Amino acid sequence: MLLESGTPGFDALVAPGHVATIMGPEEWQFVVERHDIPAAVAGFTSESLLAAMYSTLRQLIEGRHFLDNCYPEVVKPGGNRAARRQLQQAMDVTDANWRGVGIIPASGFTINEKFRAHDARQAFPSYAVDARKRAGEMPPGCDCASVVLGKIYPNECRLFGAACKPRHPIGPCMVSDEGACRIWWSAGMREPVAKAKRTQANA
Ligand code: SF4
Fold first, then answer.
1. Ligand 1 atom closest to Cα of 141?
2. Would you say domain 2-69 falls under CATH 3.40.50.11750?
3. Which atom of ligand 1 is found nearest the CA of 138?
4. Of 25-39, 49-63, 138-152, where does mean pLDDT reach its minimum?
5. What is the whole-number distance in angstroms between the Cα of residue 190 and the centre of ligand 1?
6. Considering the entire predicted model, what is its pTM?
7. pLDDT tens digit string along 51-71?
8. Residue 182 pLDDT level (bands cut at 50, 70, 90)
9. What is the mean pLDDT of the chain?
10. Confidence of residue 138 (pLDDT cuts 50, 70, 90)
11. pLDDT surpasses 70 at 73
């Protein structure tokens, strides 16, 4: 969706290794072929992440764009065929609502009819109640959607470090260890962007 928008907000892609482990690194080939953007698959280790960042930066500098697999010990061509077969058997690809972003066509999985008995959405009809859906929307003042879409840095949210901290998270990006705001905070970033810029300018 971001790449098709024409203003993705990034000029290289570090692709998630867990997705590529199942789907195969080829899943990301379109980034290079259709959008001419460097891409590298990374795992969840410092070495693999550094290798992927190095690869994408080097591709950018040299103007030579390709898909690099920097997690080859786990990510294999074609992915995990058994897991893909099981996904195909149990899931349908459907439109999905991404919190704060909206509905993106064909971006989600739904348990299919055959496995309906295992679908919590069917077992708990309250899932479809409007009030409950609204409770799952982004809290007022939270800019998580913009953070996730790469449009702003976490400390550009006016709640960052003020009302929203890991001990008192307002939005989902401050809750999960994988959340951008939480990572930003854990890395020692404490000041709002405007103040950080002022400090740099005065230095
Ligand atoms: S999680 Fe907190 S800091 Fe991050 S965008 Fe939401 S409110 Fe702002």
1. 7
2. yes
3. 6
4. 138-152
5. 13
6. 0.80
7. 999 999 999 999 999 999 999
8. very high
9. 90
10. confident
11. yes
Mutation pick for ligand 1 pocket among 99, 158, 164 (CB with most ligand atoms within 8 Å): 164
Is residue 192 within 6 Å of ligand 1 at its C-beta? no
The reported pLDDT for the residue numbered 202 is 54
The 3-class SS string of the chain reads CHHHHCCCCCCCEEEEHHHHHHHCHHHHHHHHHHHCCCEEEECCCHHHHHHHHHHHHHHHHHCCCCEEECCCCCCCCCCCHHHHHHHHHHEEEEEEEECCCEEEEEEEEEECHHHHHHCHHHHCHHHHCHHHHHHCCCCCCCCHHHHHCCCCCHHHCCCECCCEECCECCCHHHCCCCCHHHHHHHCCCCCCHHHHHHHHHHC
CA 28 to ligand 1 centroid distance, Å:
29
164 lines ligand 1 (CB under 6 A): yes
- The residue ranges of every structural domain in the chain are 2-69, 89-135, 144-202
